[in-house]
Structures are given as C-alpha cells and as structure tokens.
Amino acid sequence: MKKIFFILLSVLLLLFAAIAVLKYQGVEEETDDATGRFTVTEREGIQQFWQLYRQATEHRIAGELEEAIAGYSQALMLNDEHEDALYYLGNLYWELDRHGEAENAWKRLVQINPASTRGHMRLGDLYLCFESEAYFNIDDAEREYQRALEINSEQTGSLLRLGQLALIKDSLVEARDYFETVLGANDRSVKAQYLGGYIAWKQELPDDAVTMFNLAVQYSLPAHTPQDNLGEGATKSWQPLTVSRGSNCQIFQPYLVSLAELHPPISARQVEHGYQELNTFLEHIRTVARY
User: Fold this and answer.
1) Angle at CA of residue 287, ends 283 and 289, nearest 5°
2) Reported CATH class of domain 42-113
3) 50-79 as b/e, with b when 16 or more CB fall inside 10 Å?
4) CA 169, 170, 175 angle in degrees (round to 5)?
C-alpha cells in the first residue's frame, strides 16, 4: 500500500514539474515587471546598442569621423534617447561643418534632457559660429548660454561666452564683468585675460592692457619649453598649438592661436597693433551679426 502511495506521489510531482516547465516556456518571451527582467528581444537590442556605441567611440577616438557617425546613428536607431550618443554625434557633424545635422542632434539632446548643460552650450557655440551665415545669431547664442548658466552657475564656460557676446555687442562694461568673474575662478584663462586686456585698451588703460596681454601670452604657452623634452642637439620641429577642424567656428580662435607664437615680454607697441587688429575684426562682425 505504501509502495503504491509513493508511486502515485512521484507521478504527481513529475506532472507538476512538467506543467511548471511548460508555463515557464510560455512566458519566457514576456517581460517580468516585478523582477525588472527584459524580453529576449530587448536584451538583444541592448547588447547590439552597446556594441555599436563602443565601435563608434573607437572610430571617434581614432579620428575616423564618418565611421563614427555611422556607428552612433545606428546605435540611436535602437535607443534614440541616449544622451552621450546624441552629444558625440553632434560634435562629429560639427567637425565636418555639417551644421544642420549637428543642430538636430543637440536639439534632440536638450529635448530629452532640458537640463543638459553641454547640449545648450553646443547649441550656443553653433549660433556663435561667425563662418556659418545660416546659423550665426547673437540672440540665439545668448539664450542658449544663459540657459546653460542657469543650469550650472559654477561653470565658467558659459560666463566666458556671454562675455564674448557682450563684446560683440560693444557692451564693454558687461563684458568686463563677465571676464572678471571668470578670472576670479581661474586667473589663467587665456581668453579672459586676452579679451579683458582688449577692454582695458578700449578704455584707454594701456598699462592694464599690456599686463593682461602678456599674461594671456604666458598662459597660452606649454608648461615646458621644447628644450625640456628634447635631447641636446635635437632638431625635431615643435608646434605649441594645434587647431582642430571644428575650431574654425570659435570666433576668437585665430587670435588666441597666434598668442602662442609670440615671445614675452610683449611691448606696448605690439599690444597696440594686436588689439587694433582685433578691433577691426569686431567692427566687421557687428555689421553682419544677426540679433
């Protein structure tokens, strides 16, 4: 009797086990919200996204811009709200002067995350791009930089760019306030020293102009001279600064690059000549700037 009981019990247990297996197989493709598991299809999509993203990043680091664009674009087809992918995709388009596509990527970024400081900063940079007539707009740039400053008031990048905008609008007092704030946080800011010196020159403060110009030159130089890194008698050529492809849209970049080619101390006459050139450039910008 006991033997029959154990046989029946075993059969029942096997039956329950078979039913459990069938139920598990039937729900394997469904998402279990209670445990946070994903469906097989979702898991495969996530894995594919990260594979494409990593490959695109490798291409970007290697300077293979078109390949990186293709990779990030494919990754975004699987996850169109990934902020890093959108940010880097916009940067790559920017490097290739494909400004409309860069704008679309960064606009999508700030749409997904309105508090994205870097998204607003990049849009501001686009609208401050003097060489791109279709996008150069002072008011649009200022709006984006102000938004970035509201999100992160400790960041000096937006302050520096707002100072540049004030300079373009010939609002010298406002621009000076911005640059002084930047220098209060980082007195080695080449842009703030150089453009602050220009304001001093405009306000007929020649000693301050010379001092700030010289500081800008000093801080634009590398920490070590070429001789520090080369053996005695070495003849290897050396360049203090290189300019990326996208930097043609950094409105004062040509003047900043030229600073590293100077040898301090810079005389008052050289400062006068340098700021005269910058003044002519700013006067030209004001004739074509859109507000």
Assistant:
1) 105
2) mainly alpha
3) eebbebbbebbeeeebebbbbbbbbbbebe
4) 90
| Global pTM value | 0.77
Structure tokens at 94: 């920017």
Q: Which residues contact 156 (CB under 8 A, 6 or more apart)?
A: 181, 182, 185, 186, 189
* Residue 26 pLDDT grade (very low, low, confident, very high; cuts 50, 70, 90): very low
Domain with CATH 1.25.40.10 in the chain: 42-113, 138-223+248-291
Query: Mean pLDDT over all residues of the chain?
Result: 82
Q: Helix, strand or coil for residue 246?
A: helix
Distance between CA atoms of residues 287 and 289, nearest Å: 6
- Among residues 120, 101, 99, 100, the alpha carbon closest in space to that of 111 is found at 120
pLDDT band at 7 (very low <50, low <70, confident <90, very high): low
Contact partners, residue 193, CB within 8 Å, separation at least 6: 183, 187, 212, 213, 215, 216, 219
DSSP letter assigned to residue 266: P
* Residue, of 65 and 229, whose pLDDT is higher: 65
* Chain center to CA of 99: 14
- In angstroms, the CA 289 to CA 113 distance is 30
Select from 64, 70, 66, 39 the least CA-distant residue to 52. Answer: 70
The encoded tokens of residue 235 equal 């003849």
For 138-223+248-291, which CATH superfamily applies?
Tetratricopeptide repeat domain (1.25.40.10)
Per cent of the chain over pLDDT 70 is: 78
Q: Which has the closest alpha carbon to 56: 30, 77, 42, 33?
A: 77
Rounded Cα distance between 69 and 22, Å, is 45
